[in-house]
């Protein structure tokens, strides 16, 4: 069974996704609100600045003046404001506004003089008129901007006007206060948005965690069942979703209720399978025990006939055939009994066994019984100790070598290798025969599976050799695998080393 992914990682991923979606939504809303607020306040401030600049230009031009092509209708009001202020004169003195700029131009549009009023009301002359002159020259209409950094004033927006006597004047207001106000507004919006995102992240995480808690409990139950060995044996699934969660009305409750019903069905199916397997094992064991007696009698009578009767050549051949089949049937019965005992979990007394010695003995026996094959062995000089039953471990090696012999043509080279790798004894039996059909590779350890035509030899097989190897290996805490292709087939057995 493959390892189940870590449950906490999946839960954290789900929570993170939901919280990130919530944060993205709130961030989008904060960004939209910030943009709308910035644009609205900026528009309002620019409108106010335009109105102040209009009044400043009216004051600078004096009563009855005209400022801009569209301001004739408002000249009286502006002039009234300027007159009331008492600050607007054609001489170029700035009006009453703080940091207000006033300049006088001659008939050719050249700036004659310029001054500005500080916060205390003191009027200061502009020393460098070149930037102001260049800005007036570049003005397309009656509006423009000028940078008066040389006088430490920053950037100004100005407007041109003309007094009753035809004298052209300029009035300006600084842009720094407007920009400073917008900057403070933007910082406030950014700070408020960050606080909103922080609060959303904390509260959202708590809410999502609380909301997903029932689903996490359902997932935990499913994970516990997924980790249970359900393939064989008497299995009891005790894990269930709590009744307070597994109720209708919520998504997690519906999933929990469905999972409980599924587990009940699975448990019933496993109980049925277990009863069937136990009945089959009892039948095989009982039938095998019952067959032992008649098979022994058949072999005994066969030997007695050969010793006491005068047989024709045909009769001798029949008796030999009868004896051979009785031996084959006896071997089949013994294999079935062994598999039945292994399925029941029965295990012989375990001792420390030198696996290298078992491999050497098995290969030497194979060289005698099958001299038409080439046998190679690779066993280390030191002992490789495993804990197990010596007779069963010997059967692993013998069955693998016999499988290679029976299902490969004459002259095939068979190699048996043994090594210690990472606290495991690794046995490899390799041959250079035609290989196993890829469609049958996954079934080679199934009981009563016969070899495909490519690896079939002249000897009949019962299809229990490799299943017995697999059962014994797993009973000793090991594992077996096969890798086959034309010209190379390898069976690899891994058994834990003795402590």
TrEMBL record:
CDD domains: HATPase, HisKA
Extent of Low complexity compositional bias: 60-72
InterPro entries referenced in this protein's UniProt entry, alphabetically: HAMP_dom, HATPase_C_sf, HATPase_dom, His_kinase_dom, HisK_dim/P_dom, HisK_dim/P_sf, Sig_transdc_His_kin-like_C, TCS_sensor_his_kinase
Record's subcellular location: Cell membrane
Gene Ontology molecular functions: kinase activity
Pfam families assigned: HATPase_c, HisKA
This protein's UniProt keywords: Kinase, Membrane, Phosphoprotein, Transferase, Transmembrane, Transmembrane helix, Two-component regulatory system
EC number of this enzyme: 2.7.13.3
Catalytic activity: ATP + protein L-histidine = ADP + protein N-phospho-L-histidine
Domain Histidine kinase residues, every copy: 286-499
Biased composition (Gly residues): 76-95
Region feature Disordered, mapped onto this chain: 60-99
Domain HAMP: residue ranges: 209-271
Chief localization: membrane
PANTHER family assigned to the protein according to its UniProt record, in alphabetical order: SENSOR HISTIDINE KINASE TRCS (PTHR45436:SF5), SENSOR HISTIDINE KINASE YKOH (PTHR45436)
Protein name: histidine kinase
Organism: Brachybacterium equifaecis
